[in-house]
Write a structure and sequence with these properties.
single chain; 134 residues; alpha+beta; 3 helices
């Protein structure tokens, strides 16, 4: 793992959360993006070298909507940047982690992503992500 890339926070109302985090961090979101395939709209805030990603559901059957219904608002995942996501998936599987996405998928913020099941990492949903080279 190269670094903590971002912390994902599930929220009920993205616009309200954007206002809250703008006040908290002293800066506005630098980017909003919808990932239609996942039923989520995201806002990204840069703080130092790290980012906060706010996640709001766009439909009731999305993973974020299900998370919010089950657990309420709060930390959804921690994302780590990697330089070779396919290789990292192989290494993590070999080390006994349950990888939810054997093939990386397109995520927000120009990233390819894969997730580890929380039961593999003491209750924390872990995302690994790699920047898509342009």
């Amino acid at each position: 793992m190269d670094k903590i890339e971002h912390i994902g926070i599930a929220v009920n109302n993205l616009e309200e959360a954007n206002a809250t985090y703008k006040k908290l961090l002293g800066t506005a979101a630098y980017k909003q993006e919808e990932v239609e395939s996942e039923g989520v709209k995201t806002s990204f805030f840069k703080i130092g070298e790290s980012k906060i990603e706010l996640l709001g559901a766009t439909r009731e059957d999305s993973p974020i909507a299900k998370f919010l219904k089950k657990k309420g608002e709060g930390i959804h995942h921690i994302a780590f940047a990697v330089s070779d996501i396919e290789q990292k998936i192989k290494e993590l599987e070999a080390d006994g982690f349950e990888v939810l996405n054997k093939t990386p998928k397109k995520g927000a913020d120009n990233k390819r992503v894969a997730f580890l099941h929380p039961k593999s990492s003491h209750g924390v949903l872990v995302e690994i992500c790699q920047e898509i080279k342009k």
